[in-house]
What does this fold into?
Amino acid sequence: MAREVLVPALTHSPGWPYGVPIEELAGRSDWGGVPFQQFVLKVHSRCNLSCTYCYVYHQVDQSWREQPAVMSRHTVGTAAVRVADHARRHELAGIQVILHGGEPLLAGASLLGHVVERFREAMPPTTTIAFSLQTNAVLLDDTMLDLCLAHDIQVGVSMDGGSARHNRRRPRRDGRGSLDAVHAGLARLTSERFRAVFGGLLCVVDPSNDPLEVYEGLLEWRPPAVDFLLPHGNWRTRPPGRVADELSTPYADWLGTLFDRWYSAPEHETDVRLFEEILALFLGGHSRVETVGLTPAAVAVIETDGSIEQVDALKSAYHGAAATGLHVERDEFDAALRHPGIVARQIGAAALGPECTLCPVHQICGGGYYPHRYRPGSGFRNRSVYCPDLFTLINHIGRRIRPDLDDARRRAG
Amino acid sequence: MASVSAGIESHQPDMTGLSLDVIREVGGPELRRALLRLCREAAGSPPRYSGFSSNIRPAGPQVAWAEPDNGS
It folds into this structure.
């Protein structure tokens, strides 16, 4: 039996879902939760870049300062055993382990190789394990890529389009631009030798950039997948350009232009995750990513010191927002399944407030990304600070695909 | 709440009624791919969880887990 979760003491009341009994949150007395299927391993807590919008270093949560720089081999081993226990207990056919940071490549090839081997050793034979890594690509040399190739670690790269803007938004810690090093790393990754482990590109939206220029720049690397992430913000700290005037929708305008470009291409060029998930939701399917839809989130984060946390983007809300008070040394992952913050992300529309549930698109936006709903006092039971943009974008996509669906229905008779 | 504008359906269309032959003739590659994904999901276990957004890799089929006996 998992022990009860202790929500760590905070300097203020975070609001919903904290303080609500689990049975009330879940709407049932025997809540077990959706088992975790993705484990984000913070193998290194520091970064060699200092991105202006980073939620780890440049927003309200400063807990990185209390973390060891690198995950110890002891913590890796303990985490592997805990994850394997979770997989065994829930008879998981497959899990994903995401090597993350900070900048995970700062951990070095030796430790990363140890992580993969340790997790593979620990896992029950009935559970497959897929590894991926998210990097800024600055340290992506042949040694690292040989490691990724040998262990089938899919490599995702974070970059923003446009050289001048990339260097301004993603500088090194000493202020120098990072783009040349990123391009060198990407050139290696996308070479014939290593392309098999190229996972794709992540780009944070900057509405002051030309969306088509950004997209075309990313496409030059022939990525198998791309996603565009909204910069983190909430009702207390609004994202850049997300002004109070709800008729202004700079992010929807940007993404809508991009959707039209992607959707109208005569041939498939790349997966754009956000758009693919919205299309799937329109068609009655489920989302595979936590940013849209109401599918239960099944992500657990293991911090560098072994703490079990919620998704790190919560660090943009308030100091300690991602914490659970749990640790791999003493707690099973099942204990985290009863943490209010985890439960809130697994109960679908029950996590939404009335202004969302009355909205015709709530099953598609899912209320927006959970960290973006935070408002001091009421917590996370609010619509997203991006609500006007999400609503406009979803309407735009709905209008765009409607004639094609009608045409398909007509042909189907 | 944002004001409601025209053009969005309050219910989602049921695509399971479309045959693969019809889907293959859908003009745009992205809608065609989305429809095929829905067909695959309808034929097997639908994905029952969503994943971490700060990581990107090509989407593969998701696998379901066995329901625990005791719900704990």
In short: Chain B has two helices and no strands. Residues 16-47 of chain B form one domain.
